[in-house]
Amino acid sequence: MNGLKWSRKDLISTENLTLAEINQIFSMADVFKASLKTDKAKLPYLNGKVVVNLFFEPSTRTRTAFEMAAHKLGADVISIATNVSSSVKGESLKDTARNIEALMADMIIVRHSSSGAAKYLADRVKVPVINAGDGAHAHPTQALLDAFTMREKFNGDFKGKKITILGDILFSRVARSNIYLLNKLGAKVTLAGPSTLVPMEFEKMGVKVSYNLAEAVADADVVMLLRIQHERQSATHFPSISEYANVFGLNLRRENLLKKDAFIMHPGPINRGVELDSPLADSGRSVILNQVTNGVAVRMAVMNLCMHATK
After folding, report:
1. Dihedrals φ, ψ of 156, to 5°?
2. Is the distance from CB of 248 to CB of 192 less than 8 angstroms?
3. Cβ contacts of 307 within 8 Å, gap of 6 or more
């Protein structure tokens, strides 16, 4: 499909991806997206392969997108949720994965609440492992589909583009994965939200930190909203949901803070009326549904590349 050689068995994070590898994923995703629009038939790239979705955390969009991507590539898919797996009986992640591998699975997609779980797994099995989210560490395919969506809007040129990521940064694997990726693509990233959720430490990652909503979004080409990650928080990081919405929520009243051509993104699920009001989520500024569509093509590209990685 293209002349570059892909040598990664696994996709664990965006941190160590090269620009050439990122562009290789995007180029392949372009081809897959075009084929999805014109041809409803399955593609033969993963014919005869078995892909296992191993999800130790609940997920609808990510799991479904991986299932759809695998089906479109011709693979058979088995999805295992933690509440019905042997893990609830005390079986270790390593034992679960090795048993899946022994059942002749060809690829494992894993989501886990512990940071580092995907890397731990990839180091212990021979088949490709793709990280579908591990704790607050990384969510590489989400960041790739986000950047792929921006790339379409920017006609491929990220230079000088300003991306504001607004919300719960501290507990967000999506934010971290996007920061690594967008920095490599040449964009300028600003993180915004309450100081308890956006510590100044993030500046070490080469981004700007702001606690002023108006300032953070005023010159942004993209505003990416993140939900509050209650499930990862052990303490209250702001007075209340209504207080957060009043200070940092993006609503119709605040839309005039945005540039005329700025667009809105969200990895989902949206807490409507908290980080983002419904009228804006459903407006012409929103590319949220584009993100969902692009997620299938990008994951097809990643799965195909890892399955056929050269040694």
Report:
1. 85, -5
2. yes
3. 45, 46, 49, 106, 107, 128
